[in-house]
Amino acid sequence: MSKTTKVGPYRIAPHVRAGRLTGRWFLDIPRSIAGRRLRKLFANREEAIQAAKDLIRGFAQESLVGSLHPKSRTPSVTLFEAEERWLAEQERRVFTKKKQASSLERDKYNLKNVKAFFGDVKLSQIDEQGLEKFQAWRFRKGRAPDTINADTQMLLKLLRWACRRQLLSQVPEIDLLPSDAGRNLIVPTLDEVARIIEALPESNRLVVRFIAETGSRSGEVFNLDWKNVDLENRIAHYRRRADWTPKTRHSERSVAFSEVTRSELLKIKNREGLVFPSPKDPEKTRDNIRKSLKTAVKAANISRDRKPLHVTLHTLRKCYATWGAMEVRMPHRQLQDQLGHAPGSKMNLKHYVGRSRDLLHQCVMPLPVISQVAEVATAPK
Prior knowledge:
By secondary structure, the protein is an alpha+beta fold. The chain folds into 3 domains: 5-68; 79-164; 186-362, Orthogonal Bundle (hpI Integrase, Chain A). 47% of the residues lie in helices and 11% in strands. A 4-stranded antiparallel beta sheet has the order 1-2-3-4. The termini are far apart.
């Protein structure tokens, strides 16, 4: 076979000498990676392809590239090349359960916005001014500050990775946009959540109750299996399985549920596999029930400013954080454990604890009326 092959930024082609094929194959390493164009010969095509794949994954960098140019020089890698190598590393992390597949998908989505603005520019050309222009570009498109910050942080993550891999000399500094997260977070009251659950179809009531009572993530509850549920002590354990991993190591925890939930769980006949599987297929996990919740909110007439209150499964998790912090007065450290957040994280107060209508009225500090106080003071005894 004498056809040229492309593996990422690398070209593999048969070696020709004096107009004849030698049987060997060479790997063409572009200038943007090695600092100057390089060619390495291999005994066959398969070895050359494997070497190219190893380069993309970060293996054999020193043996194939590093020793061929001065170490003081930083390779001029482009954004697209860096992304390809970074994604290869992250896919290995997903494979070894060090990272969730959903997190990688979110990173890929954020990178699309970065690539749309910068194009295949050299990493060394991305400076503070370029980052500020990127933020302004996203802002003009009507994106929220938190969305812009997520894209910016993804780019900074990639640049820091490139710096650790000696593909970039330094990472530019940039201030994130002021965030409005948590400031206008309005959550339903306990009574309103109970009414929403009552308005749901029977197939969704128990899973929504479970999330609201425990503050769990929907993905944790959807992947909960019966062997990790202790009905006698009313405790559920979130533990990793071969086909599912909790969001972080702090997400592996135990949560308690109510006696009402326990009695409802006892009514479920099949106690094997998933506790809350898809109603259509018991072997599959349940899908998001956003539409069902939206319909239930309207049916229960839960509104704010004459508009139906926006409620999702994640809203119920924030409800739990708000009730725990404001009504139950749960210690912050315990609330972090309940939600599966890292110790010392400010995530609870910044994004999860909101305002409930009942709690809003409890915060009022009534003062005496001066005229009434004066009348009481001057009244004859």
